[in-house]
Task: structure prediction
Amino acid sequence: MTAVLELPAPPLPERRNVMLVGTMLVIVAGVTLFGGLLAAYFSARNATVHAGGTWAPEAGTLPNAALAITYSALFLSSFTAQWAVSAIKANERRQAYVAVGVTLMLGAAFINGLSFCWGQLHLVAGADNYASYVYAISAVHLFVVVAAMLLFVVMGFRVFGGQFHARNAEFVASATAFWHFAVVAGIAVWWCLWFLAGGPTS
Result:
């Protein structure tokens, strides 16, 4: 009697872009978070102004120059982050090292600049609604920037180990997408908290 040989089971289909999809979901959650924080900020501001109270300090007392330089550094880091992606897809590891390093330096410059601006504000968290919201929103954004920097540190070590190339750059694309989110969120925070000097009245 002839033995029947069983064919091996077919391999499971490979799941593609799982990390990138997960990153997009995190970004959507982050957009919702910042949208809620800024909506609460404007709501509290309008309620204070309508009640005849004072919301923000005089525009001239804000460290506008330092704030502009601080957030400009963060804005520029978006270009260097994208440079890292292009360098890895082109298999240019040296350029990738430089791009990752410059991006991290700009992120560190933003953190240093923001801490300096906090000191120049002379606000005490919890003293009033304005101080509480300013510190809460800017601190949450700072946490997002630190998280993006940690992703880039991991990416830098993996680039150094030669783990990425043109066909294996999903982690790079995910980390860069999150970095871009941190930059866009920073622009929104700068516009609402600092550029508008407390936001528009209604």
